[in-house]
Amino acid sequence: MQIKILLVEDQKLMRIGIKSLFNDYPELEVIGEAETGKEAVEKAKLIKPDIILMDIGLPDISGIEATKQILEHNDNIKVIILTSHVNESELNASLTAGANAYVVKDISTEFLMSVIKMIKSGAMWIDPKVVPFIRDKHNGVIPSRQLSRSAFRQNHSNLTQREYEVLRLVVDGQSNSQIAKTLTISEHTAKAHVCNIIQKLVVDDRTQAAVKALKEGLV
Fold this sequence. Notes:
Layout: E1 3-8, H1 12-20, E2 28-34, H2 37-47, E3 51-55, H3 63-73, E4 78-83, H4 88-97, E5 101-104, H5 109-120, E6 125-126, H6 131-137, H7 149-155, H8 161-171, H9 176-183, H10 187-200, H11 206-215
Parallel strand pairs: 1-2, 1-3, 3-4, 4-5, 5-6
Helix pairs in contact: 2-3, 3-4, 8-10, 8-11, 9-10
């Protein structure tokens, strides 16, 4: 069953680029496009997409306001906010408006496709790049809950302490090569740790592992 997507982006080249990402994913289909927030609101009513990829900066009303209006009319639609930068007030406003995800535009294609599928299934997603920013501000959107070693082993005894350290770096958005450099291990070892974490947390990929870690307060 295809996931139907409405793409909202005011820059034509960006729309072309984003649409091209879906060529290798036949289960995802862009069924409509909009250049402005008001156009997005109207098209959402007409075509009833499953997911809206919503640029936050639009020439009339913002993507946040458009999200609010769309969900007031149909709260079955899922909205993924796309932004080129991290902004605390915009993040809070996006979540308050009812957005299901807040994604920085330099996300990899693989991650974006995983996020779309998770959002369709009812999950929420906040880009790992935003997590340290949120914690520094202590704004309460994501609680920071540090576990002692004993508490960690009691709650998640199937993960080793090293895997827990790797998981925290995955949540912070680090790649395998970055994890290897941070922990002074080989990239092969870092990749093996990530694979073990994915298996032990019973998720499909590192994106879902990061989501589960945030939801369960592991980091």
